[in-house]
Inverse folding.
DNA sequence: CGCAACAATTGCGCGACACAATCTAACGAG
DNA sequence: CTCGTTAGATTGTGTCGCGCAATTGTTGCG
C-alpha cells in the first residue's frame, strides 16, 4: 500500500485498480441512461430524439439518411423523429439548394439551449467533482475520457458491422 | 504551458481542462447508450430489459415493485419486462416463502454470463485504455469515476423527485 | 370475521419503430 | 432531348413496449 512497491506488487494493485474502474463504469452508465431518458421526457420528446439532437450538436447538421446512420435508426423512423423534433422547435429542415433531394437537418438555437439547460444539473455536479483534482490529474482524466470515447465509437462500429450471433 | 504557472494561469488551464472533460462526456455517453441498445438487441431483449438485468446484477435481487422503482418503470411494464427476461432465460421468479404476495426476481447464471459475454468487447477495450496509466493515475481515475457515478445517482433522484417544468 | 392495504398481474390504448411501397429529383446512356 | 436508373425523403402498415386503470390473490388490522 506504500508508494514504493515492487513491480509485481504494483502490477497486482494495477490490475485491481483497473478492474475497479471497469466495474464502476456499468453502474455509472446505467444512471446516465436514466438521466437521458428523464431529460428527454421533460423536453416532451423520446430518448431517441434527445440522442439525435445530441448527435446533431456534436457532429454538426446532417441529412436525414446520414442522421439515421449516426443514431442507428431506419430512414423511415428518422423522418418521423425529425417531425417530432421539429414540432418541439428543436430542429429545422433546410433544403439543400445544390441538390433538391437533400434536406439538411440542423438544430435550432432553442434546441441547443434546451440541451445545456436540461444538462445543467449534471454539468454542475461534474464540475464540482472535477474541482477536487489538480491540473495534472485533470489531464489524466481528459486523456482517459477521450480514449474511452474513442473505444466506445469503435465498439459501436464493431457491433453494427458484425453479424448477429457472431 | 510550463509546469510552473501562476495561480491565475493555472486556474485558466484548470477550467479549460475541466470544460474539455465535461464536453467529452456527452459524446461518450451517446456511444455507450448505443452499445447498450445494440447489445440488448443481440440478446433478443429490449434496451430496458438489459438495463433491468444490470440493476439486478448491481444491486441484487429484488421484487417487481422495487425493480420498477430502480429502472423507472411502472409496475405493469415491469411485470411484462420480467416476462421477457424470463422467456430469454435471464431471470427467474422466486416466490417469497414468508410473504406469498412477494415474488423475488433474481438473475440466472445464464443471464449474468450474457452480460459479461456481450460486454467483453468494451471491457477489453477499456482495459486496454487503462493500461496506459500508472498506479497513481488509476487511483485518480477511480476516484473520479466513483464520484461521477454518485453524482449521476444524485441527479437521477433529483430529476425523479422534482416536478416537471421546474 | 370482514375490510383496508399491498403486491403482482392483465385489459386497453397510444405511440415509436421496422419494413416496404411511393414520390420527387438528379444522373447517365443512347 | 428523352428515358431508365439511382438516390433521398417521406408515407402506409404491422408489431410491440409502455403507461394507466382494473383485477386477483395475500396480508394484517380493527
Amino acid at each position: 500500500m506504500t508508494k514504493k512497491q515492487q513491480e509485481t506488487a504494483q502490477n497486482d494493485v494495477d490490475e485491481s485498480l483497473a478492474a475497479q474502474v471497469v466495474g464502476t463504469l456499468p453502474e455509472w452508465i446505467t444512471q446516465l441512461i436514466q438521466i437521458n431518458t428523464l431529460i428527454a421526457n421533460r423536453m416532451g420528446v423520446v430518448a431517441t430524439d434527445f440522442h439525435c439532437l445530441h448527435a446533431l450538436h456534436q457532429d454538426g447538421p446532417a441529412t436525414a439518411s446520414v442522421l439515421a446512420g449516426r443514431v442507428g435508426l431506419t430512414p423511415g423512423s428518422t423522418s418521423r423523429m425529425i417531425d417530432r423534433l421539429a414540432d418541439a422547435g428543436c430542429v429545422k429542415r433546410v433544403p439543400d439548394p445544390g441538390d433538391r433531394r437533400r434536406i439538411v437537418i440542423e438544430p435550432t438555437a432553442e434546441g441547443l439551449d434546451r440541451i445545456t439547460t436540461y444538462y445543467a444539473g449534471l454539468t454542475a455536479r461534474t464540475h464540482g467533482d472535477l474541482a477536487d483534482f489538480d491540473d495534472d490529474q485533470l489531464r489524466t482524466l481528459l486523456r482517459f475520457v477521450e480514449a474511452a470515447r474513442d473505444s466506445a465509437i469503435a465498439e459501436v462500429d464493431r457491433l453494427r458491422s458484425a453479424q448477429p450471433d457472431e
Summary: Residues 23-132 of chain A form a domain with the Arc Repressor Mutant, subunit A fold (CATH 1.10.10.10). Chain A has two domains: 23-132, 133-166. Chain A touches chain B through 71 residues (CB under 8 Å).
